[in-house]
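Researcher: Checking consistency across runs. Here is Helitron helicase-like domain-containing protein again:
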Amino acid sequence: MWSEGREGMYAAQHSRDPVRDFPPVERELDNYWEKAFPILYPYGTGGIAAKRPVKLSLLEQTRWALQQHDHRFRTYQSFVFVACNQQQRRDALSSCRVLIKRRDFAKLSSKFANLTVADLEKAADEESKGIQISNPNARALLEATFGTASRVIAADSIRSQYRKELQAGSIYFGPPSVWVTVNPDDLHDPIAQVLVGEEIDLDQFSKTVGPTKQERAKNIARDGAKVSNKRFESSKGIFGILEGYYGTVECQGRGSLHIHMLLFLKGAPSWEEMRELLKTEDFRAKVKTFIAANFKAHYPELKNKEAIDAIPSNTEVAYDRPPHPDSEDYWVKVHDLEVQVVRTKQMHTCTPQTCIINDRKGARCKRRAP
């Protein structure tokens, strides 16, 4: 191939010793990031955790890398996922603490001293299967522990912290008015396509103009950080003016995000006022009207399997704009759009690969589908 002016393939053999991916790095040549991402570090230097005059944390260096002018770090397929995984592992290991009440320490210290790694591994396996932990010492450790790993995302202790923050918000703002989940179609939403640089006229929108379905998916997968690195200003919306909100972002299996939020509306009645208002018939009627206009739980067009199969699924339903409020058949168009969205996005089919789990209750859907 060299004689033809082409470059052939290279065979690279791994070494006997794995590269350490957790500091401190003993040898300067054993930098995990430089070896794992040779395309990002073509000169084999400058990787995260490398020696430099000013010591920087993993989080600081990752943020710097994602803001690089050439975007090579944030557009690389696996760099963001590896960096997030490393950060979460370090948070878990550096913040792991077992907190025990003083009165229980003397009684439990001898039990904890007799625990082995095998005992803890067996207890973890039993806990994951939903059965009672057989080792009494491990069970005593679990029962006596009331705080661990307070910096680990999604840990029980961090969820407890979220609840306390939410309670504080309810005391400060008053009772929340709306609970909402925002789960946008990240691949086909035209607003997301505009944010990544596509030239789309949102005022005079046309489905046939703009990137194809495949191009839209590539745009989001190529540089998801570009969409999230935006700043927005809020104004009066469909619910009125927000006094405040509290939301938690969750990540799905493929990396897409959705958020659960409680909205605190400006001018909403307090707990005491709400109790008195709910005693009046006029206010209860207004609440019913508001709920009926904004929240739907049933569509007659999707009442059974035959009706559902009669309506085709439209995977590109999100690549559109909502009906114009001034159109004469506005409510008809809104209803048809809602049916299409529910038919395409809200239908759940149970499969062993997605949601069916086996525990002591038998096989069941973890999404609680019937």
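Researcher: Does this match what you'd expect to see?
Model: One thing to look at in this run: The chain has 14 helices and five strands.
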